[in-house]
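Progress note, sequence design subtask.
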C-alpha cells in the first residue's frame, strides 16, 4: 500500500480550500445569473406573448453562451470538490491506519 504523506496532503487541502470556495461561489453566481440573461433576452424579443419571449430567450446566442460558461464553472468546481473529497478520504484512511498501528504498537507516518 502507498505511504501517505499526511503533512503534504494537509498542506494541499489548505492551499486549495480558497480555490474551492471561489470556484463554488462563481458557479453559484453564474447559475443564479442565468435568470438575468433570460430576462434580458426576453425583453429584447419582438414577440407579444410571454411564452414566445421565453422561447426566443432560450434560443438566443447570449443564453446559450451563458450556459456554456456555467458548464465550465461547474466542471471546475466539481473537479476541485472531488479532489478535496479524495484528499479527505486519504486523511481518513491514514487516521484509521494510524489507530490500528498504535493498537499494534507500531509507528506509522
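Output:
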Amino acid at each position: 500500500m502507498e505511504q501517505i504523506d499526511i503533512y503534504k496532503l494537509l498542506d494541499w487541502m489548505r492551499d486549495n480550500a480558497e480555490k474551492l470556495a471561489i470556484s463554488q461561489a462563481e458557479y453559484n453566481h453564474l447559475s443564479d445569473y442565468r435568470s438575468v440573461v433570460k430576462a434580458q433576452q426576453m425583453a429584447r424579443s419582438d414577440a407579444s406573448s410571454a411564452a414566445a419571449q421565453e422561447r426566443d430567450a432560450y434560443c438566443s446566442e447570449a443564453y446559450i453562451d451563458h450556459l456554456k460558461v456555467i458548464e465550465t464553472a461547474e466542471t471546475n468546481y466539481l473537479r476541485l470538490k472531488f479532489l478535496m473529497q479524495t484528499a479527505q478520504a486519504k486523511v481518513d484512511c491514514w487516521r484509521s491506519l494510524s489507530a490500528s498501528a498504535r493498537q499494534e504498537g507500531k509507528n506509522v507516518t
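The CA atoms of residues 29 and 83 lie 22 Å apart. Work on this subtask will continue into the next period as scheduled.
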